[in-house]
Structure formats: structure tokens, C-alpha cells
Task: inverse folding
DNA sequence: CGTCGTGTTGATGGCGTTCAAATTCAGTGG
DNA sequence: CCACTGAATTTGAACGCCATCAACACGACG
């Protein structure tokens, strides 16, 4: 019945977000207290899933919110035309399971082997209404996601495919920096099609953009799931050149 | 305290959002209690501003969050290239003033004469940490904005200018429905340039798209600030045809 | 009546989409 | 270890749409 003490930091539910209030330099991410993580662990369930598993479907009853402990997940929407749009890629300490009126707004699928925390929305709501500090962390997290979403909108507004792909790699690179790994080498757990569906480009355009960035000696696509950043300063310049 | 003496719904701070939990049909929007609105009114200040007034600038210290009581506001970003991107248009019961590390991420400007509530972020934070129910309403509101932002991303993904403009008019129409007004007639408090900057199109494309929608007898642009929806069903079909 | 900001129309070129076909890659089983 | 196989990726060619540049109209305001 009793949970083990002090769950591993990687595996206990935790959230990644830049606070909206001014914070000390080292407080770049919000941190849950051990007690809060224990509370979340108590109401939640830890799941391990293989790649390509559908976690939930659009329009189904939204009974849970999910926190990524390890691995990568994509959320996507099916448009009436049959096209798939990837709303977001989620990594360690990200939350997903956005709902409206008790229904999920998109579908979610694992990209890699993932470890998730599945939190019952009803119990979580009760918990949040009793623990304002915990809720504040969630508020900060959702605010963080809102910022990310607005950034994505700006990204999508770019007309040039190479610029969009550069921004995407920069994004993934920032992600990778948080999870260690050799600098300048970025893992891409998603397929080219997923990247295209995320960037709002055709698959072919993504590939041509990748070729263009290699031609410019900014990036080197070592293989399908690995990019090396060859010239970070020039890449940053291209990313900023909106 | 008697409910009858409630402050005017239009003017007291209030928030508009569809809840993420399943709710009764009539509970389509969240409602603050009178007590909560009084608390917000106590720490906040009511402002009346003329059109075209800059409310805050990108990168300046984010000391306040704003709630629209009446009127229309736009938030926008200046890109390095000098282009302006309109992040959002805000109307009655919307919240704006998104910050990161104590700095605003965009600028805000009034489009019409507006009445705002200006809430000091520090005091609001304290209030939220003491009143979990109130905070929950803010959480719901930010979640709502996140959904809106994701919808906008999908909107922007459309390639055809006419489709984007149709979606925009549909959006404004949904907005107008909440604030009364004759059905089928939609006010556009923003300029064509603003619409273009919001939709990620050139000004000329917006105008041509408008002409195209008139040619198809879907809309009639009565004047620069007024559209009439001529054929709602076909408009809806075009909007959905993503 | 002039002027400036806003809105409109026309012509051209570039870039991404689309359709089509070739090629590589990761499994799988022999 | 190697051949097989379907999926993912890559390359090529033509077309269409939107951005851009340029000229012009309109309307509010002095």
C-alpha cells in the first residue's frame, strides 16, 4: 500500500517549464516538492509503452492527463481532408492530454519506448483545488505550453522550408541539451513525415530543405534519426532571420 | 452578500473559457464568484484607453496582467526582419500579458476604446496561491488559450488564402455571437493589415481573398469594418475543408 | 483642395506542392 | 550471413499560388 520513499527524479511525475515571474538564473525550471510528487504518484499510474502505441484518440473521453517520464510522444489531429497534423512532440517532463468539455482534442502516440504517468483528471482536479502550490506549478506549466504554441505559430509563418527545418532542429537541440548527450548532436525520434506534418510542409519539402541545409554546411544528417550541428552560429542566425 | 448587488458583469473582472472537464450544457463558460471578482477588483485597477494606445511593449518588465472588460486589443511581435506578427486579438473577458521570466513576450495595443482591468502580477500570484478555486479558473482560462493557440496553428497551416480568411471571419463571428449583435453581421475592429499579420498572409492576399469570397457569394464586405455572412452553411463547409 | 494613411488592382517571379518513379533501409526468415 | 520485402526516404519535373513590386483609388481630416 505504502509507496517507496523518494522516487527516482527521472521517474516521479515532474514538470518542465520556464516561470512567468522573474526568477533567479538557476531557477529556470519549476520544481515539485517530494511531497507533491508523492501525491501525484499516489493518484497516478506508471505505464511503460512500446513505440507506435496509440495512447488515446481524439474525441474520446478525457479521463486522464499524462506526464512523460522518459521517451518521446507525438500528439496529432486528423483533419477532415484526411491530412494529419502533428500538434506537438512531447519529451521528459512534458504534459499532454489537452481536453475540452471532457473530450481529447487530439490523439497521442508513442514514438519511442516511453514511461508515462497517467493521472486521473477527476482526482487531479481535487488535488489541485486542495493544494494551491501544486496547482501553481501546473498553471506555470500550461502557461509554458502556451508560449511554446505561440512560438510554433510564428515558426509556421515562415515561408521558406529551410528556415522552418532549421528552427525545428534548433528546437530539438534545445530539448536535447536538457537531457544531456553530446553537444551538437541531436536525436530525432520522429520520422520525416512527422516532421513534415509538424512543420506544415510536404514530406518532399522537408527532405529538400534538409539537403539544402547540408549543402550550406550547417547540418549533417548522419542518419535518419541523427543530426549533427556543424555551424551553430550560422544556424542560429538563420533561425533568427524570420 | 446578496447576489443582486453584483457589479456589472461587463465591467468586473471576469474570464471566458470552455472548461476542460465535462460540464453541463449551460456551463459552457467559467464564472467567477462575486467574492472572487471583488478580490480581483481590489488588487486591480480599471483603465479606460483610447484606440491605438500601446499598453505594454515586448521585453519590458511584466508587472501586470490585463483582463479586457470591453473593447478589442491586439498583441503582436516585432520580428528581426521588421515584420509584425499579430499573435492574437483579445475581446471581452479575455486575458493578456503573457510573460516569461518577468518580461512580456509581445506588445499590446488597443484597437478600439477599451476598458481594462490591470492586475499586479505579484499580488495576483499571492491571491492565487491562497485561493485555489480562483486559481483554478485561471488555469482553465490559460488552458482555453492554449487550445485557441493550437487551433490558430492549424488555421495558419492552410495554404489557401481564401480558406484562411474564411476561418478568420468564422472566428470573429463566434466572438460576435457572445456579445449580441445582429446575426450574420460581424464587426472587424482591426485593419486589413492586422488581419494579414494575424493570418500570415500579405495584405494584398487578404484583399484578394476577400474579393474571392465575395465573388463566391459567401460574404459581403459592407465596409472596411463590417462583413455580412451571406451563406453560413457554405462558409462553414469551406472553413471545415482543411 | 491637398495630404497621408488605408485599401485596391495588375503583372511578374519564386518556391512549395503534387504526381511519379527510383532508391535505401530495417526487419524477417532462410 | 544473406536474400527478401514492405515501408520510409530520396530525386525529378511541371504546375499553381502567394509574395513582391508598382501604380492607383479612396476617405478622413486639416
Result:
Amino acid at each position: 500500500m505504502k509507496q517507496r520513499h523518494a522516487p527516482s527524479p527521472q521517474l516521479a511525475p515532474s514538470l518542465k517549464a520556464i516561470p512567468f515571474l522573474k526568477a533567479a538564473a538557476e531557477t529556470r525550471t519549476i520544481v515539485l516538492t517530494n511531497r507533491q510528487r508523492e501525491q501525484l504518484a499516489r493518484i497516478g499510474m506508471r505505464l511503460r509503452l512500446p513505440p507506435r502505441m496509440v495512447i488515446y484518440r481524439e474525441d474520446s473521453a478525457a479521463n486522464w492527463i499524462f506526464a512523460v517520464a522518459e521517451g518521446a510522444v507525438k500528439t496529432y489531429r486528423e483533419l477532415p481532408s484526411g491530412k494529419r497534423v502533428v500538434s506537438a512532440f512531447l519529451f521528459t517532463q512534458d504534459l499532454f492530454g489537452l481536453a475540452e468539455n471532457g473530450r481529447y482534442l487530439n490523439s497521442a502516440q508513442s514514438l519511442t519506448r516511453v514511461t508515462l504517468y497517467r493521472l486521473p483528471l477527476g482526482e487531479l482536479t481535487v488535488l489541485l483545488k486542495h493544494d494551491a502550490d501544486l496547482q501553481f506549478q501546473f498553471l506555470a506549466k500550461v502557461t509554458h505550453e502556451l508560449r511554446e504554441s505561440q512560438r510554433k505559430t510564428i515558426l509556421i509563418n515562415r515561408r521558406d522550408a529551410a528556415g522552418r527545418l532549421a528552427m525545428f532542429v534548433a528546437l530539438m537541440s534545445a530539448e536535447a541539451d536538457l537531457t544531456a548527450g553530446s553537444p551538437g548532436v541531436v536525436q530525432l525520434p520522429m520520422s520525416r513525415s512527422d516532421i513534415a506534418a509538424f512543420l506544415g510542409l510536404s514530406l518532399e519539402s522537408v527532405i529538400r530543405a534538409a539537403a539544402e541545409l547540408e549543402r550550406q554546411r550547417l547540418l549533417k544528417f548522419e542518419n535518419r534519426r541523427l543530426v549533427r550541428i556543424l555551424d551553430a552560429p550560422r544556424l542560429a542566425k538563420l533561425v533568427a532571420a524570420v
Observations:
- DSSP finds seven helices and 13 strands in chain A.
